[in-house]
Design brief:
three-stranded antiparallel beta sheet; alpha+beta; 6 helices; homodimer; three-stranded mixed beta sheet; 60s Ribosomal Protein L30, Chain: A; CofE-like fold
Chain lengths: ~230, ~230
């Protein structure tokens, strides 16, 4: 594999629970990318998966506990958002009160800011999207639907989300769910270009594909699938 | 930007200090990728930059201090390698004796394993490659050379290296040097797809391009430029 094409699927709507995401991906792939071919990997942003799965919450419906209120005051965050973050987390990993940053281990096992909850690209001033309950399961469902609809068996599906990284400036897209492919390529014990055995490198190809996909999606281009 | 093509440049040699890297990139781009176009980003792996810049060391030439010897014993690492790592670091960030992992802040400012020193894809059982002294300067040199040779002004050059990440399994490629382009896209204050102002997201497009490039280079395919 030395040439790769990243195609952003255009013409997709603002998704909500009334949409069939897989059907619309297949239609958009046929109309804007010449269809889906064997070996393709489809990267879907977390936001649209959360939207079609109904993982959007209105902060007006949230009643923050005293703990959330106290933490929110220190962080300069909305107490209702902090309440949701705490509900979606198993552990607080780091609180940076000066910068208003709350890093937690989410109930899904991700170490990330705000348990992955955010408000970008969601209609309504008080609406936020939680992560899908089980992004691997979401990816499997999309995989199976697209296999059936596009009549292509050999496919990968990745759910991507935008994460910050310790010790690095800027955010990049990571994989939070994956189906139809291994998220890793293990180069251990393979032979490198000068004939030596590689010792340790396990490449997270799913994260690389997620990062690559962001190049075609952007944050505000309304291209949620690649 | 919604479609992106990643082309691995084939036919490049095992580089050493006798090679003109930029010339060979331009030749390979013309013979295997139809040339270099305005707006292209060229991603070069750290390993070949280190090789052409003479940043390869033979462990046989290294005389470890008692401090390096002591640390090496605890880590189960070669004391000469530990000596080099300490010389290339300003601070030890983490030592995991059980796993033999040494995370440092390198003299270049990267928080990574072994100050970025490694032995894959290098001829000789005792040879290791250090990071380029100044990867931004290396990228600028390659940028200027390629601009002149290929007669293309609007270009980006990224030097990539493979890093592990805290709290994530598997390695991915990061940018350690960049020229001709901003490493970041700042979406702050831009309007998202539902008309709201995005608040915080600065995307590290250089890291995403580096990660994307790895999909076409692999670890053992001898494709060091994308």
């Amino acid at each position: 594999m030395s040439n790769i094409e990243i195609i952003g699927l255009t013409g997709l709507p603002e998704f909500d629970t009334s949409h069939n995401l897989s059907e619309m991906i297949v239609e958009a792939a046929f109309s804007s990318a010449g269809g889906i071919k064997s070996g393709d990997v489809i990267v879907v942003t977390q936001k649209v998966v959360s939207k079609v799965e109904g993982m959007v919450r209105d902060l007006l419906d949230i009643d923050p506990t005293p703990k959330a209120q106290k933490l929110a005051t220190k962080l300069g965050k909305d107490p209702r958002l902090v309440q949701l973050i705490l509900e979606q987390s198993t552990e607080i990993v780091r609180t940076d009160f000066e910068r208003g940053v709350l890093i937690t281990e989410s109930i899904h096992g991700f170490i990330c800011a705000n348990a992955g909850i955010d408000s970008s690209n969601i209609e309504g001033d008080t609406s936020v999207a939680l992560l899908p309950k089980d992004s691997d399961a979401s990816a499997r469902k999309i995989l199976n639907d697209i296999r059936r609809l596009a009549q292509v068996q050999s496919l990968g599906v990745i759910i991507s989300d935008t994460f910050g990284r310790p010790w690095r400036d800027g955010h990049v897209n990571f994989a939070i769910g994956c189906a139809g492919m291994s998220p890793y390529i293990d180069y251990k014990d393979t032979i490198d270009a000068v004939g030596q055995v590689l010792k340790v490198t396990t490449i997270c190809i799913a994260d690389e594909l997620a990062a690559a996909s962001e190049l075609a999606t952007g944050k505000s281009l309304n291209i949620p699938v690649v």
